[in-house]
Amino acid sequence: MIYTLTHSLSTNERMPLSRIELLQGTLDMIVLQTLRWGPRHGYGLVQMIRTNSRGVLQVDTGSLYPALHRLEREGSIAASWEISENRQRVRVYRLTPAGRKRLAAERSKWDQLSEAIAGIFTPPVPEET
């Protein structure tokens, strides 16, 4: 199954079966983690997320660019205009020191949440009497 990462839908919209609603901040964490491996333009981020998730995660541009703008306003990433290998003008995003710090904090929270959920799926240990 392929999951398309989107922003939260309003209560009036139906969610297609192939889409998932992200926990608050998950897309930001995915973007920061992807930028940890080096600067990327928007399309490069989409491609890297798709590739690194083995095609399971796909990011909608309608969700990606608002996340990039939000992260830039917060100072977690910086952006500059550059010329691509196709000789097109593209906006390239880079992780800032503040972004590295935020990523570390987000990863810590994610690890705690993952462990908690994994614990729910683990059979309970019988209590000793």
Task: Tell me about this structure.
The protein has a single domain, classed as Winged helix-like DNA-binding domain superfamily/Winged helix DNA-binding domain (Arc Repressor Mutant, subunit A, Orthogonal Bundle). It is built from four helices and six strands, in the order ββαβαβαββα. The protein has helices spanning 26-36, 42-52, 61-74, 97-121; strands at 3-6, 19-21, 40-41, 57-59, 77-83, 89-95. The strands form two sheets. Strands 2-1-4 form a three-stranded parallel β-sheet. Strands 3-6-5 form a three-stranded antiparallel β-sheet. It is elongated.
Gap from first CA to last CA: 45 Å
Largest sheet: 3 strands, parallel
Unreliable spans are 8-17
The general outline is elongated
CATH architecture annotation? Orthogonal Bundle
Share in helix: 40-55%
Which structural class best describes the helix and strand composition? alpha/beta
Which features would summarize this protein structure in a list?
single chain; 129 residues; alpha/beta; Arc Repressor Mutant, subunit A; three-stranded parallel beta sheet; three-stranded antiparallel beta sheet; 6 strands
List the helices and strands and how they pair.
Blueprint: E1 3-6, E2 19-21, H1 26-36, E3 40-41, H2 42-52, E4 57-59, H3 61-74, E5 77-83, E6 89-95, H4 97-121
Parallel strand pairs: 1-2, 1-4
Antiparallel strand pairs: 3-6, 5-6
Helix pairs in contact: 1-4
Short description:
This protein is of the alpha/beta class. It is built from 4 helices and 6 strands.
